[in-house]
Specification:
Layout (H helix, E strand, L loop, with lengths): L2 E9 L2 E10 L4 E7 L7 H11 L3 E10 L9 E2 L1 H17 L8 H5 L5 E2 L5 H72 L3 H15 L2 H20 L4 H20 L4 H21 L4
Parallel strand pairs: 3-4
Antiparallel strand pairs: 1-2, 2-4, 5-6
Helix pairs in contact: 1-4, 4-5, 4-6, 4-8, 6-7, 7-8
Length: 284
């Protein structure tokens, strides 16, 4: 969701400039910052961005600069200037120790410099076209960023597949070792004729050893993440959900662990999943 784009268009009303900045955000959050000439276009700007973008904190700056020409003349709006001067004079009575007025700041105030009338209809048409071009560039920038993130996630998935591949062949021997320990406990329990303890040990054994389901689901989640990344399009929310599911399976694998090896692999899985989850927050 991170990206930057700017676009400039010469129009009959002047030079229209659009700048877009996008950073990570779970939802779409828009921050239009339009100058006085473009302020009436804010609903159109918001609607265009909502249509084209799905997630991210997006700042949109739009301004109309007067066209530069050799015969252009600068004119002051004397009526507005007099109003400002009167207001400053009145304010000075209440703040006699204030700093002197900076004339350059006064000239930058809205309405002080007289400009030619802006044609609202053509401005709206030009604004939509300029904004659309800027959004195109932003989407391309975000796509380039997405390709980098995709490569990182695929690397983590390959590591996860490697860890799953380590666990599966280990399980028969771990089961055998754990069974031997359990049988020793059962023999001890039989000496005391404690049938309830025997049942508890058997139940615990069944629950602790069976991790085939967790490993199968992890495999399925890895395949689904790859499929979503290959399909393209809006994927952030789907991937975020899958990270939650993968983390749940890794936690269960750890809780059912009967050996230090599987406990360590469970921790490594959770680290890799968290690394992917952090990157997925940047994907739309």
């Amino acid at each position: 969701m991170t990206g930057y784009a700017s676009y400039e268009r010469n129009t009959s009303n002047g030079v229209l400039q659009v700048e877009l900045r996008s950073v990570n955000q779970r939802y779409l959050e828009l921050h239009p910052k339009l100058d006085e000439n473009c302020r009436a276009l804010e609903p159109t700007v918001r609607e265009t961005l909502k249509t084209r973008l799905g997630r991210g904190k997006v700042e949109c700056r739009m301004q109309l600069a007067p066209a530069q020409s050799s015969d252009a003349s600068i004119e002051l709006n004397h009526e507005v200037l007099q109003q400002i001067a009167a207001s400053m004079q009145e304010a000075g009575k209440h703040f006699p120790d204030s700093q002197p007025v900076n004339i350059l700041e006064v000239l930058r105030m809205p309405g002080v410099m007289a400009t030619h009338a802006v044609n609202a209809e053509t401005l709206a048409t030009d604004a939509i076209a300029t904004l659309s071009s800027a959004v195109d560039d932003l989407i391309k920038a975000r796509a380039r960023e997405g390709e980098k993130l995709k490569a990182i996630i695929l690397e983590r998935l390959a590591e996860i597949e490697g860890l799953i591949g380590q666990v599966k062949p280990m399980m028969p021997e771990l089961v055998k070792t754990y069974r031997a320990r359990l049988l020793a406990k059962l023999e001890e329990a039989q000496l005391s004729n404690d049938d309830e303890r025997i049942r508890q040990e058997i139940t615990l054994y069944t629950q602790r050893i069976d991790v085939d389901e967790e490993l199968s689901r992890l495999d399925a989640h890895v395949s689904e993440v790859k499929r979503i990344l290959s399909a393209g399009g809006l994927a952030g929310k789907k991937l975020d959900f899958l990270m939650q599911e993968m983390n749940r399976e890794a936690n269960t694998l750890g809780s059912k662990s009967v050996a230090i090896e599987t406990t360590q692999i469970s921790m490594q899985l959770k680290v890799l999943i968290e690394q992917m989850r952090e990157q997925i927050q940047n994907i739309e």
